[in-house]
Structures are given as C-alpha cells and as structure tokens.
Amino acid sequence: MSHLFEHEGADGKGYSQPDPVAPVDNLQIPSSLVRAKLPRWPRLSEPEMVRHYTWLSTRNFGIDTGFYPLGSCTMKHNPRINEVIAQLPGIADIHPLQPDHQIQGTLAIFHEMQDMLGICAGMDAVTLQPVAGAQGEFTAIRCIQEYFRGRGELGRTKVIVPDSAHGTNPASAAMAGFEIIEIPSREDGRIDLDALRAVVGDDTAAMMITNPSTLGVFEPEIAQAADIVHEAGGQMYYDGANFNAILGRTSPGLMGFDAVHYNLHKTFSQPHGGGGPGSGPIGVKSHLAKFLPGPVVKRRPILAGDQLTSVNKEWWYHWHQPENSIGKVQQWHGNSGAVVRCWAYYRRYGRELKTMSEHAVLNANYLRHKIIEEAEKIGVRHLFADGAPVDVVKHEFTISMAPMKEECGIGAMDIAKGLLDMGYMAPTVYFPLIVPECMMVEPTETESKETLDEFAKKFVEVLQEDPEVLHNAPVTTKVRRVDEVYAARNLTLSYPFDE
Amino acid sequence: MCFATKPTFMLVPRYDSPGDYHMVDQLPNLGREKEMLDAMGMSSIDDLFADIPEAVRMTEELPLPPPQSEEEIISDARRLLGANVALGDRVNFLGAGLNRNYVPASVFQLVTRGEFLTSYTPYQPEVSQGMLQAMWEFQTLISELVGLEVANLSVYDGSTAAAEALTCAVRVHNRKAEQKDTVYVSELVPPSRRSVIHNYTQGGGIEVKTLRHNSDGTLDLNSLSQAAGSCGIYVEQPNPLGILDGGLTRVKEIIGENTAFVVGVAPVSLGVIEAPGNYNADIVVGEGQALGSPITYGGPLYGIFACTKTYLRQMPGRIVGRSIDVDGKEAFCLTLSTREQHIRRHRATSNICTNETLIALMGAMHMSLLGPEGLAKLAQRNMAACQLAKQKLSEISTIAIPHRNNSHFNEFVVELPGSAAECIAYLDTQGLIGGFDLSAWYPERKNWLLVSFSDQTKATEIELLAAHLAVWSTSLVQGVRA
Ligand SMILES: Cc1ncc(COP(=O)(O)O)c(C=O)c1O
Known about the structure:
With 499 residues, chain A is an alpha/beta fold. Chain A has helices spanning 46-57, 81-86, 89-92, 104-121, 133-150, 168-175, 193-199, 222-231, 252-255, 264-267, 286-289, 336-349, 353-377, 402-408, 412-421, 449-464, 467-472, 484-489, and strands at residues 125-127, 158-162, 179-183, 204-209, 235-240, 259-262, 282-284, 296-301, 315-320, 385-386, 397-400, 428-429, 438-441. In chain A, helix 4 crosses helix 12 (336-349).
C-alpha cells in the first residue's frame, strides 16, 4: 500500500518552475484574503510521482487489460491515433472565445460531425454541446419543454419511461421539472403498448426509450409506440446509449423519434477514462431545431474578404445561435476534445459504420450462443435463464441468475466476482432492474472470436464452481471483496491526516 | 438548420479502391463472419437483423465517405487542426476563466496508461483500486485546497458545478427558508454560466435573483442582506473581472446560517488566497482546468464540487470512500450511491452519471507534483504577471484601468478609448490574441477589454501588449481630436 499523502519530500520538489516575472514580496492581496496555511498536499519528486500513479494503474482494469463485457457501456477498443490527434495544439491549445477565422479547422470538423451524426440517426439538426449522455437527455427534454411552452401547451407535464429504462432517463426529465410516469414492460421485456395507451394523454410531454432496449432486444413495435405518443401530442425521445447496435441498419428517425442523444464515449470510442469524460451530442427533427442549445456550427460559401485558410476553399464555417435556443448546458462548446477524437474514429469507418454495428451484433449473438452451447455441454444450462426469450439479440444480452440463486444461493454478484478471478471484467449486474439477478453482457465488435470462445468456456466453469468458493471470490485480485456497507457506515472521504 | 440539400463531405479525398476497408485493423472478426454465423446456424448477417421490421429498415447505404486508414486520418487532422491559430502560436491574453498554465509532461504520459484511460466507472472495486484510490486522493487534494470537509470526484465543469451547488442548496435549505425556492447569483456571472444555472434550476421552479456590485467591482454588502433567508447565494472569487474581493469574508455573517454561501474559485489562486472554507463558505465549486488540463477549446474540463458535511447527502456526483476488504485490508469503493440516479432514479440529487474522472486524475497528478509550496509559487507567478501588466498598462495615458485599486488574479479590465472588438481585431493583425471583448457579457461595456495572464506570460509579452495598446489607443484619441 502506497499513500500519496505519506510522501513528505523537500519544498516544491516535483518540478521546478521559472521565477515569477516580477517580485512577489508586494503582491496586492486584501489582508483578509491572505492564505494562512497551505493545503496539506504531499511533496513528491517526479520519480516518486510517476511511480505512485504507475503503481495505481497496475491496480486498475481497463479494456487494454482484458475482456470488458460491461453491458450498456460499449467497452470497445479505443484507437490510439485518436489520443495523438487530441493532443495536437490545433485542438488542445485553442480557446473557445477565439474568433471564427482562427478556428476554421475545428469548426469544419464540428460541422462534419454534426452532419454525420444527423445522417446516422435520421435527425435534421445536431448540437455537440452536451458533455455526457445524461446531459444530452436533459438538453433534449429541455428543448421539448420549450417547444411545448412555445405552443402554449403548458399542461404537458409528464414524461413516460419504461421500467427497464436507465436511471438517468427519469433523473434527467425530473431535473427539467417533469413528473415521471413509469410503465411496466411485458413479460418478455418488451414495451407494453396497452400500458402505454393507458397513460398517454394531453398531459404527455414525451416518452423516453432506448431501442434496442436495455435487455439488448429490438422493440419491433417501436413505430406503433411512436404513433401512440404522437397521436396524444407527445414527443419521442431516443436514449442513444445502445446506438452501437443499429448504425446503418435503422435509425431513430426511421423509428419515429423526434430527438436523440448520442453517447460518443460508447458508440464512437471516446475512452471512458475511469468514469469520464464523455460527450453527449443530441440530434433533433426540424421542429425542435430552433430550441437547441447554442451556438451550433453552420457554413456558407466563402466570400471576398474572408481570411482564407488551408481548411477549405469553398466553405466558411461559423457559429450560429438557434432562434429560440434554450441557452447553454455547458458554458463553452461541450467536450470538444472528445468530439475530435470521435471524428477520427468515425473517419476510420466512414460509410462502413454499418459493418461496425453488424460486428457488434454478430459478436453478441455469437457469445450468447456459445455460452448456451457450453452450458448445455456440461449440464449447467438450467442454472440461468434468458433475460428476454428471443431468437436474436442486438449488441448485448441479459441473463438471469435467479435459477442458480434459487438452487445454491449464488447470485449475479457472486458470479461477477468469480469472473474477476478468471481475469475478466464482470458484466453489468443488477441492471436493468426488471430482470432478477441480472447480468448484462456486451462484448462489442472489437473482440476476437477466440476471446469470445474462451469467455464462454470460463463463464460456465464459474457456474460449476463450489458455491463456497464463489462466496469468497475474488481471491486473485489486489484486494478481496470490498465491504461497501463499512464504507457507508464509516465515512472516510479523504485522507485522515490525524489518524 | 435542417439539411437543405444532402450534405456533401467536401473534405474527404477518395483514396480507396472498392472493398479495401481500412477498418480491418479494428475488427478482429472481419472475414470470419461465415464461420461464426455457421456456428449459430445462420446464413447471413441479415438474419441477425431480421427482428427489425421492414418499415423501419434503412435501405440505402449511409451517405458517408469511405473508410480511411490511420495515416490518412492523421494527415487530415493535421491539415485541419493545423489551420487553426493555437494560443501558443501567438502572444496570448485571452483567458476569461480558462487558464493556460503549464502542465508537466509526466501528467500527459501517465494519463494515457490504458489501465486508466480505458476503464469504466469503478463498479467492481476489487479490480479498480487504482482509480478509486486516485479519486479518493483527488477528493483529499480538493478538500485541502478549498478548506472544506468533503469533495466529490468531479462534475462536468465549473458552470454545472455552480448550477448543481444551487439546486443542492435549495434541497438542503428550502424547508426552513423564508424566501422559498430562491437563490441569488452575482450580476457579474457571465451569461454563459448564468444560462447553465437557469437551465438547471428552472425545472425545480427556483427563482434566481441578482446580487449587485459596487462601482469598484466588489460585492455590494449593503444590499446583500436581502439574500438572508433565501436558500443560497453564488459569487466568484476572483470574480469574472479578475477582482479578489476581501468583502467576501463577511458574507456568511450577513446571510446567516440557513442560507448556503457558494463560492466559485479559480483553484490556482488558492496558493496565495485564503481557502473559502476558512471564511465560512458552505459549498466551493470551480473550474478545475488550470490544474492539470490544457484548455482544449473549452472541454473536457472538470468541475470542482466541495462542501461541508451539512450538504453531503444532497451532493451530486460520485464519491469514493475508504473501506476494508474481507481480510480487513484497506480498500476503496464508491459510496453514498443512494443519492444517485441508478438507485434513486427520478428522486436522485442529480442526473450525472459519466463525469470527468480522467481530467480530475490529471488534476491530481499535477497537484501531487506541485506540492503546497509549488502551488504557492504557481499562484505567485500568475499573480505577479497580472500585477506587472497592471502596472505597465496603467502607464498608458490613453487607456484606463477601472478597477485599478483592487487586487486581481489572472485578469483585469482595461477601458479603451474605442471598441474592444476593434482593438482585438487590430491586435490580431499584430500577432496578439488580445483578450476578451466584455460587451459579449455586459452589452453596455463596449470599450471594456478583459486581459488575462498566466504562468506562461513573459515580461516581454506584457511590454508588447503595452506597446500595441499605446499605439492603437493613441491613434484613436488623436484621430478623434483631429
Ligand atoms: C442506457 C443508458 N442510458 C443513459 C446513460 C447515461 O449516459 P452517461 O453516463 O454518458 O451520462 C447510460 C450510461 O451508462 C446508459 O447505459
């Protein structure tokens, strides 16, 4: 165990700084504001700092470490060229308040990204400003709110979400001031149109839903659901977390949605970075376009007098404020560094983004098939059930460990910990909430057949394991099972200097 | 904003021969589809999409350019991004809340380690101790920096941090507040941040009232008493005009126990300026960027969020706690999750899920290298550059420094004899990114230029700015006289 705060080297050891440009003995600081005591920060030389963080990194599991089938998170390989591009001074060292003529290259990339995302989702207008999926949801719901206010439909105060929805959906709509109506899913996990019909009305603002659903299953009746909501005068919102499943095969636009967010950190490989940063642009149909947060990038033909750059001889790119913009959700232009990375990613595939999605779906179905095959081979198929009884899934699938829990007391969390001992990241557990003892597996398109074959074998091996062993798992990790209750009861949220 | 015509991708040269798909290096199973489909008893990829009803199927190819190889992508990226004017290409005085501090090389090297870069939120603590501990250390670094008991491991940026602080204040204080659902925000807070605050607060029916300032740019403490009994107030230190306001140390006694005192900080300034926790701030937020991260066109950044224990259970965002494993060994995990959307759903304290962990990690690395004395020196360098500039510019008779007698951090206002926009355009022709035209924030201030200085500002650059401002303003004044 190495503690950052136990490093107590000499003053200002870490890296030497040039001297100030002027004497500092007469800095003008109001006497009431002079800092009395410096923060108790550690003192590390560069070698100590490098070793500390390298040591920490060895205690962390990433996609680069091994298979990371974390459902709903699309843990695909992050191409390294994207990191190199994001460090170029033309993006890393530019300021959001520079005039348009100094940033034509960035605006061109943004414009291309707006177009590309619009095309892929079948939407008419795109903003890149929201910085994560949840913020995209919130932004789109705000646009819908202003749309109804503009029409004088002030009674539309409710947002419908299925019980299989991700927690951010209801949380985002509630933050915008809406009342949440949760509707139950059908027995097979799919949307229940009767339940939907029962709740829609002239108080409906929107329905928020993802397709494929959080069970990894395509909702065949999505167009009907859209009709029901539209007939009641509401709007359809698409949670784009599962977009990786459908690019080039269908689109939210075709399904009848009015607004969508994209998780660039899922579909377009912005690295998750241990929890962020992400990027959550939204796309909308034309009737919502004028409410988008501003500004968005537009272009016009080059005019005499424009300062020409090497970007383009034909178009001039500029920021444009939508007419009835809801304003801002991030004070600058969103997570621009992430947008540029994702531009580099999309360029890799271009129109073959469709192939990317096909492989994501191929891998998910193949892995599901293999797990079942291996389980049948060794007679453990009865220990788990399908989260949704379907022939094909999309980019991910769910299984329920309820039968195993029943039989020997081993649930999804124990299996997850067993998989950690096998050298894997565990699938998502206990989400969606409607599948008991749920494990949600998303292999992504960047895993080889061999990795999937091996995982299927190891997965069923875990099911055969002695329950006692699984209760005790993991044993091969840097620490063993962590006591979350202890953490909550004995809150220690920072280094206890006085301990 | 709709696509009037089918968008064309002018920028993409066509290199490929048909079927030459460069993404082959990204998809390990390309060419093995048949083998895998056979194993499943399927005959084509289309079988995998048979569940998508025909009516909603996309029948045409995506109208996008062909795939590119890595070499082609980097070459396009270099051409496009190379056409931008980087701050480092010029002499730069643009800041306005973002700050171009030097970030040591080791930070960039370490943060691209795949174990950090390619991990998700640490849901499985046993294999995520590295990031969990790093974030617990980050919480400690921030908590020490701002002088408050608890910090989370980041929200999106400084603006959402301010907005979340105000909704948090309402959740904590509304029940007892005399002015229900009411918060006060400094009138100087720029429209961009105000707009974020509006979007985050309007849904809860929260009214955002305005706090006035004196003509010298400091908070008007006389009218502040009107905020007593509201749920919270938000002010910035330094304020958006770069002013360090000593009066803020008296705010809490004026607004009282049941009104949250929320302060937005420039974190580097806290190397010389008192931690707001020590003048009774209840919540401290801020834009973390200057510690650890390049400006990157305004994102990704990281929002600092710290508070006293009173607000702990109403905080937004993820928090790491120290715990033990089954062997009693020290271990870390996410804690207090019952505040969050995945458990509390529509009753969560915030909708935030993905945050800015990796940028916060860069912050932690930078802070670790600085140490307390390094931070103090960094703050002094920033402040010395600002002070030297103020002295040099105040020698120019044709311009004025309206808040000259205040103390400043990073930036101050220059009042010009003509429009700031025109001055910036002139400086641009001279190779200077001259600052920020404050009329974009305060429309009546046509002649106010906000100039910013960081640890990167050199004395010669300040001389250059002074010389150009003198030339421009003198020619303008003489022009008017003539
Ligand atoms: C289905 C679904 N919706 C929404 C989100 C929220 O996205 P973000 O974490 O980017 O805010 C997630 C992310 O975990 C998700 O899985």
